Amino acid sequence: MSLKKFIDRAVSPWMQLNGPDDDIVISSRIRLARNLSEFVFPIIATESQRKSAFDTIEQKLKGASYSTLGTFEPVVMSNLSNIEKRVLIEKHLISPNLAENPSYTSVFINQSESVSIMVNEEDHLRIQCLFPGFQLGEAMTLANGVDDWLEDKFDYAFDEGRGYLTSCPTNVGTGLRASVMVHLPALALTQRLNRLAQVINQFGLVIRGIYGEGSEALGNVFQISNQMTLGKSEQDIVEDLRGVVMQLIEQEKLARRDLLANSKIELEDRIYRSYGKLVYSRIMPSKEAATCISDLRLGVGLGIIQNVTKRMLNELMVLTQPGFLQHYFQDQLGPNERDVKRAALIREHLNLEKRQ
């Protein structure tokens, strides 16, 4: 496995698989924050202290393999261009925070890209497991397995009263951040989403953009996750999120049925107009592309559009992002150039899909 393969393929192998309720839930993610007891936490460590932790982790994980996941390949941030780092963010393999601080930082990625282990981000280790569709339980089981495997190699910073010790107080305890990425176009179109967001916050959950904290929600795609980890068990955190997401799924399905029953012509017109823009436009800004892809995804989910696959739409979600777009065309592109290239790339892929 080479860095080139991680960077070149828009859709990770795990994302090509089907999952429960994947017309609404794009992915499920479990992330565990862990620190090594013998080293100063990364956010306050000196360069030499960061290097010591980095070298220790690198030595024990390089070439290591776990169960059926295969070998984990190291990708060192300082070896990457800004565009390459952006691509890994857009594929959700690393966080923006890891990319912004390349000093003795890396990520270990398995072959299917379903598991990545970030090194020296906010904490020494950030274990991330991704599954297609609504599979929080499966992601949690895998994350626990990887966590146990790592704990055999490292002495974690742990307190009997507080649990796992982390750089950010909101992660102390289980160190768990459970999240799902959901596509909620019908709730947005029927203007029910803001009210539901207020209810979700009351359950200790938060709605963010597709790249997490501080990011923008594009194309009606949102990330829903827990806010606190202290005082709750891993099972409780996952079950709370599962219950809320199940309600969101039902509400989105209800909103879709309402649109079909009461505004079918208007809905079809919106979907086909967006389809036409994607197939024929010569200039396509990123926000407009995200909106049109969202409409097309809704059309595919409702059976209105027959000749486009969810896999193609997943690929377009990544391909049309600024970093991947520039990597695809092997060029540093300004905003206007990106809009032209984005339109060309979308036309190419959708026309290819229609011919198959």
Automatic annotation (TrEMBL):
Belongs to the ATP:guanido phosphotransferase family. Keywords: Allosteric enzyme, ATP-binding, Kinase, Nucleotide-binding, Transferase. It comes from Terrilactibacillus tamarindi. One of its GO terms (biological process) is phosphocreatine biosynthetic process. SUPFAM superfamilies: Glutamine synthetase/guanido kinase. It is an enzyme of class 2 (transferase). The keyword Transferase applies. One of its GO terms (molecular function) is creatine kinase activity. One of its GO terms (cellular component) is extracellular space. A motif (RDXXRA motif of the pArg binding pocket involved in allosteric regulation) lies at residues 338-343. Gene3D superfamilies: Glutamine synthetase/guanido kinase, catalytic domain. Residues 24-255 form the Phosphagen kinase C-terminal domain. Its EC number is 2.7.14.1. ATP binds at residues 27-31, 92, 126, 177-181, 208-213. It catalyses: L-arginyl-[protein] + ATP = N(omega)-phospho-L-arginyl-[protein] + ADP + H(+). Appears to be allosterically activated by the binding of pArg-containing polypeptides to the pArg-binding pocket localized in the C-terminal domain of McsB. This is Protein-arginine kinase. Catalyzes the specific phosphorylation of arginine residues in a large number of proteins. Is part of the bacterial stress response system. Protein arginine phosphorylation has a physiologically important role and is involved in the regulation of many critical cellular processes, such as protein homeostasis, motility, competence, and stringent and stress responses, by regulating gene expression and protein activity.
